[in-house]
Amino acid sequence: MRWHILKALLLKEALRHATNRGGLLLAGLLVTASLVMAALNPAGEKTTQLIGGIHHCFVHAEDFDGPFVKHLQESMPPELRKLVFFKKLDPDLGPDQTVVYPTGTGAIQIRKAPTGPDGEPRYLIWVWHPAGDRSGMEIYESWFSREAYRFAHQQAIERLNAKGLDGAKLLPMPDLNRDDLWNNRLVEQQLQAQVRLQGGTLPEIEWRESPLVGPALDMHAAINTALVMFSLFFTCVYLMPALTCEERERGLLLAQVLSPARVREILASKFFFYPTFGIFLATLLAGIQNPAVLLKPFFWLAIISLAMGSLGIGMSIASLARTQRSASLGALCYMLVVAMVLLICQQNNITWIPYLTLEYHAPQILHAVLTNQTREYHWFNLLGCTVLAIAWVFAAGFLFRKRGWQ
Amino acid sequence: MSDPVIRLTEMRAYYGKFLAVDGLNLELHRGELFGLLGPNGAGKSTTVKVLIGQHHPASGSATVCGFDVARNWQAVKPFFGYVPDRENHFDEFTGRRNLEIFAGLYNVPKARVKECLQLVELDEVGEVPVRGYSMGMRKKLLLARALLHRPSILYLDEPTANLDIHSSAIVHRLLRQHVKEGGTVLLTTHNMQEVEAICDRVAIMCKGKLIALDTPLALRQQHTERKIDVILKDNERLVYDLDVDEHRRKLADQMRDGRIASLHTREFDFHSTFLKLTGTQFD
């Protein structure tokens, strides 16, 4: 690497942006948007939720292979079939361990409680809802309590029948079709009482509910995260490929390559300039909203990792696209494809594919750090993000050397 | 004669399966202005691309100043300046700024930028953005850029296309000066008069092969037709071959009798020569 060449190439990039002010204008707009948001919500308090409702619910059961879970699975109404996921809950989960549910989801945990004095098993049904969105769980809870009652009712009838009584006559089925959680709870208590009256027992169920730790996705934090991510995407995935392809299209890249500048020096100048620009912009936007993040190493690691990944993606697009137009379209297509993949995976509970995308990890770590909610598992997201970023940078370097400047 | 600065030995180059250059042998020396002629698809541009390291020959070799272009491209680069047929400037920058960026890459002082602008008579518009330049001015700026680092070799693709007579003269003067100072120039052109006027040697290529290689004067001598076109006063048109006795006699008779309205000798015509050699239309 020769300094005079790097200096000339970096100066060229800076001058191009100073002359074509479109990029600077958009950066200015981003800063303005961030300033306006900070001015309107100086304390950074949570505002309204970005999306109402809970898009998925997890039914997490210790007795995963038991008849109750089987009953729940079989009684699933069609409209909930794609929204409810059954999972086994580790019975040895310690009090210091956390179960993590994705943002915008809730959970109903079925835990076993110590056996009661009558020898009957006891269950703890624990409803977890996103903080500030209790009502979003209603549709899932209504179905769950209804089917829990039906299951208990069936068991009670069988037990009474076993005692030589007419269970069906003694325990008529109440109206459960009203979407009224209190009604369902009430009839369940009545059932317990009726069974006890007949000298029988039923497993006791204790209902509990808690908000999930960590905020729901609120508008303010989501827009902050989006602005920071967009600034990196804009500089590295849009601006860099577009300007690099413009240079190629106009023969400017060839002119530079024919000068003493080596391919790796041209690459290095781009690899230095655009992420620096992106990091500066992203830091500025994040700092406007929450200056404290600038003192957090996690923030810097996240930003550097994301900038590196965005750069790799951008340079790969720049190497594959032949013209400025196709580079811009390529950046857009990339964004749409990733968005579609993430959406499809989320809708179908495909968990491993999103781990392979930078765009899965990036919002999680940025949102966490910008809202001061960094947890242990976010370090895994950061690690995943860094590994993907390194892979993208290697791919970009390879592609650029192979065909990028021709 | 000095050692060749550029040497192509049995060079073959393909585009996919298409053989663009077929076994080309060529040597260019210091202080030589060399013209490469040929119709479209003849292999001229591919030859230049091989020399600037933008196309790898399939077989044979291309050496510049003793370095194999394919193997030591980085070492070869400082030796040449390249003027492409299609201008490639940063339109948004001024002419001076364009040259300054490349001066930075070549590590030459900024004073050289001013010198080069003066050489191509663009110093007065040096502060004007290139988007305001005419095609001719852009072409001259390309030449200024190629001269920045005082290369020993200049490759030029149609250097005087779109230039007015005055600008063409400037380019010709600069090229002649360059070879006078010991440099080497390889230019591809379609301008026959330009070749005759400034080139020391000319190579004619067709379908990837070299079909003629000589000085313009030698080509003139080889291909000049010793014929005279005559129009008589009664509008009859005749052609007399000066190498045929009977034709010479008839011509003399008609001149003596005053029957000739007009008479033209057939001068050397590079265009016709080219057509004769290549057997193809020149465009």
What does this entry look like structurally?
The complex is a heterodimer of chains A (406) and B (283). Chain A has 406 residues and is α/β, with parallel strands linked by helices. Chain A has 13 helices and five strands. In chain A, α2 (22-40) packs parallel to α9 (263-289). The longest helix of chain A is centred in the middle third of the chain and has 31 residues, at 219-249. Chain A starts with a helix and ends with a helix. With 283 residues, chain B is of the alpha/beta class. Chain B folds into two domains: 6-221, Rossmann fold; 225-266, no CATH class. In chain B, 35% of the residues lie in helices and 27% in strands. Chain B has ten helices and 13 strands. Chain B has helices at residues 44-51, 73-76, 95-106, 110-119, 135-147, 165-180, 192-198, 216-223, 245-257, 270-278; strands spanning 6-15, 18-28, 33-37, 59-64, 67-68, 80-83, 153-157, 184-188, 201-206, 209-214, 227-232, 237-241, 260-265. Chain B starts with 5 loop residues before the first strand and ends in a 5-residue tail after the last helix. Chain A binds chain B through residues 4-5, 7-9, 11-12, 15-16, 19-20, 250-252, 254-256, 258-262, 406, and chain B through 52-54, 74, 77-78, 82, 84, 86-93, 97, 101-107, 145.
